[in-house]
Write a structure and sequence with these properties.
By secondary structure, the protein is an alpha/beta fold. The chain folds into two domains: 259 residues, Rossmann fold (3-Layer(aba) Sandwich), CATH 3.40.50; 116 residues. The protein contains 17 helices and twelve strands. It has an eight-stranded mixed beta sheet with strand order 1-11-12-8-7-2-3-6, with helices on both faces. Strands 4-5 form a two-stranded antiparallel ribbon. Helix 3 links the parallel strand 2 and strand 3. Helix 7 packs antiparallel against helix 8, helix 11 runs parallel beside helix 16 and helix 14 packs across helix 15. The longest helix is centred in the middle third of the chain and has 25 residues. The protein is globular. The two termini are 31 Å apart.
């Protein structure tokens, strides 16, 4: 459901879409199965392509000169692909190396025939490989992988390393990441690392067979995407005709160093309190033990892969250091924070959990707004979270943080999440089942 806060041309465009298809249009309950580049990886809490694409197309309609799109928490690259669909320049940042790998592969090049040839050669070498040497050594390997599975993954990884072209190796590494999640001893019903039952461990898939099957699906998805974009003149000789930049690292420092300005910011900030939400780092940990980070980005710090929790700790809201003090700073700055914190127990961990995330988010928003052109649009997809059983008014807090930096919120889209890979509740609170997209615009004169 679309909610008006104040008038804006974008709101009028979106209202027309809602009137045509109904209020529940934004939930995309019957959205088609992912295809093309969107289907290359199963990543936690992926955004809905049709939703982000509809909003982005509406922005392009009411603001034809908008060309440069930023997603500072780019994840698996939903906004990236939707931006490429519209022939826009795109910049994405993420601290998670697996997310960066996903985006690098989705951005191309799309050399379909060359990929098919290299895939056939790679599969032949893997099948002929009789070496039993492990290609990855890390704490917990024997817990998360059966001996024969680890040897099978090693055969695949060892031969991927010998593929001559970086663009092809990245595609093969991404395919292997999917295989590792399927063949490891962690339960597939959750993104957190939880050991499977013994019976399920005995039934794990053969990694070589799984890899070959994944490559076959990749051929299909890559061809779908290449055909679509080529027919629309977005690809020439397999290469995207606009600009794409993907950076591994912290969004705040990355944007500050780049000093660039963007016409559109479209994103969904990862909620770093992984006790109750999605641990992106845990999800990526096992695949990244086998994938050389040099094939992803030279800027990846080794420390983020030191253990199963390091990446989540380094992510937005992942560290509780000085969290209570940061919460107090925000209490004095924003009315919505002050009202919410009065509801939390002063002796519990809730204030620290709140301060950890929003204490990180606030300076990040500061830099994102500095990186927004006058008149630029923002679309923030945020979830409905709870601390101590009390709903966090994330949209109100976000809007106050944006307003402080010269953004005017003019609308919200409320939508239900019809499919999610999490229980309705965990042992701490209800989990997320609704989302709000906050729509805002940078004033002509920044504050």
């Amino acid at each position: 459901m679309l909610q008006k806060v104040k008038e804006d041309p974008l709101l009028e465009s979106l209202r027309g879409t809602q009137q045509k298809y109904g209020e529940d249009y934004w939930s995309f309950k019957n959205a088609s199965k992912r295809r093309g580049a969107h289907a290359l990886i199963h990543y936690p809490a992926m955004m809905v392509p049709n939703l982000q694409g509809s909003i982005l197309a509406a922005i392009k309609e009411v603001s034809p000169n908008s060309q440069k799109v930023l997603d500072p928490f780019v994840g698996s690259g939903t906004v990236l692909v939707e931006s490429m669909n519209l022939g826009l320049d795109f910049t994405g940042v993420d601290i998670n190396p697996l997310a960066v790998l996903s985006c690098l592969t989705k951005s191309g090049p799309y050399f379909i025939d060359a990929f098919t040839d290299r895939a056939a050669e790679l599969v032949s070498k893997i099948r002929a490989d009789r070496i039993t040497r492990h290609e990855a050594t890390f704490l917990g390997r024997d817990k998360w992988f059966e001996a024969d599975v680890a040897i099978g993954i090693s055969k695949v990884a060892r031969n991927i390393k010998n593929v001559d072209a970086l663009w092809a190796r990245r595609l093969f590494w991404l395919a292997l990441a999917r295989v590792i999640r399927t063949c490891c001893n962690s339960r597939n019903s959750t993104y957190k690392l939880h050991i499977k039952k013994a019976a399920d461990i005995n039934a794990v898939a053969d990694p070589v067979k799984s890899f070959v099957e994944t490559i076959e699906t990749y051929k299909k998805h890559l061809q779908e995407q290449a055909t679509d974009w080529s027919e629309r003149g977005l690809l020439k000789q397999g290469r995207y005709q606009k600009s794409v930049s993907i950076t591994a690292g912290d969004s705040t420092s990355t944007l500050q160093e780049a000093g660039l300005l963007f016409d559109v910011v479209m994103t969904s900030p990862p909620y770093g309190d992984n006790k109750t939400t999605i641990p992106y780092g845990q999800y990526a940990f096992l695949p990244l033990q086998w994938i050389p980070t040099v094939d992803i980005s030279p800027s990846i710090e080794a420390g983020v892969l030191a253990n199963t929790h390091a990446l989540d700790t380094a992510s937005l809201g992942g560290s509780a250091r000085n969290a209570a003090d940061r919460a107090e700073v925000l209490r004095n700055e924003f009315d919505s924070v002050r009202k919410y914190l009065t509801k939390l127990s002063s002796k519990g961990s809730g204030v620290k959990r709140f301060g950890a995330f929003f204490g990180d988010l606030d300076p990040c928003i500061e830099q994102i707004c500095k990186s927004t052109n006058p008149g630029g649009y923002h679309a923030w997809t945020i979830g409905s979270r709870h601390i101590e059983g009390i709903r966090v008014p994330m949209e109100e807090i976000l809007e106050e943080m944006l307003d402080k930096r010269g953004m005017d919120t003019f609308g919200r889209i409320h939508r239900s999440i019809h499919a999610k890979k999490m229980a309705a509740r965990n042992n701490l609170s209800s989990t997320m089942n609704t989302e709000i997209i906050v729509l805002a615009k940078m004033s002509a004169k920044k504050k």
